[in-house]
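Morning!

This is the sequence you dropped in the shared folder:
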Amino acid sequence: MGKKEDGEENHHHHQHRRDNHRHQQQQQQGDPPLMALNHVSRLCRDVKKSVEFYTKVLGMVETERPQALDFEGAWLFNYGIGIHLVQAKDEARLPDIHQNLDPMDNHISFQCQDMEEMEKRLKQYNVKYMKRTMEDEDQNGTKIDQLFFDDPDGFMIEICNCENVKLVPSDASLATAIKLPTDRHNPPLDTQNGTTNHSEPQNN
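The structure's back. Tokens below.
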């Protein structure tokens, strides 16, 4: 075996040791006791206008807020995640509503099962959007369809089918650390007749 092969073997050996050491450290530290993303909070210029946008365009449902909250806002929920709207006291903290859409800017993203239907919905409500398709140059030719648009306050939203892409951990030893949506927590739902429905997690 030549020196080059020896060097490559030593490199892979040390890399393997480093990966194992990192994995052992993470196991010793333990996973944080987290369950799911609970909500995203957004400042807004007009709470009622934002509620109308999120309920009509995205199908969110307005829910009651705790009475202890003594500031203007609204809570919305659907698809296993909440959006909490807060009336802005200083509009200078909000994005420029006239800015151009930039997919590389901060945004939240919703997984979608019918991109064509969602695009029709955006047109129905006269929402300006950007459409993009990315195709991975792998053997499967995986495609991701994306729609980008802003809410009334300039916060960007993406609609996509990103789950078409296989989830591959950067370190294979960490695959068991990933908690899939079947582990997602769904809050108890108080129905109109006063009963509480403990809904089961959805398999996405």
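Headline: Residues 15 and 21 are 10 Å apart (CA to CA).

More detail when I'm at my desk.
O.
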